[in-house]
Design goal:
By secondary structure, the protein is mostly helical. The protein contains five helices and no strands.
C-alpha cells in the first residue's frame, strides 16, 4: 500500500502538467520544482524521480531556457540597416 502523503490525486497531476505551471517553473530544476510543489500542497510529498516519470507519462519535455541577448540602441539601428 502506498503512503497517503505520497499518493497524488488527479488535481495534483493536472497542476503539475498544466501549461501555466510549466511556464512559471521554466528555469527551475526538478528538485526545485518539487520543493515549490510541496510548499503549495503542504501535506503532499514529491521527489524528482516521480516528477520526471509524470513528465514522461504525459510526454512533457524540458527544454533549456536561455535569456535573449539584449539589443542595444546602436546595434538595433545597425541591424535594421542590414
Amino acid at each position: 500500500m502506498r503512503h497517503p502523503l505520497r499518493q497524488l490525486d488527479q488535481l495534483h497531476i493536472d497542476y503539475l502538467t498544466s501549461v501555466r505551471t510549466l511556464e512559471q517553473w521554466a528555469g527551475l530544476t526538478l528538485q526545485e520544482r518539487c520543493e515549490v510543489f510541496e510548499i503549495k500542497f503542504t501535506p503532499k510529498r514529491l521527489n524528482a524521480t516521480r516528477l520526471r516519470r509524470i513528465y514522461l507519462k504525459h510526454k512533457i519535455r524540458r527544454k533549456a531556457v536561455t535569456d535573449l541577448k539584449p539589443v542595444y540602441e546602436e546595434d538595433g539601428q545597425r541591424y535594421h540597416l542590414w
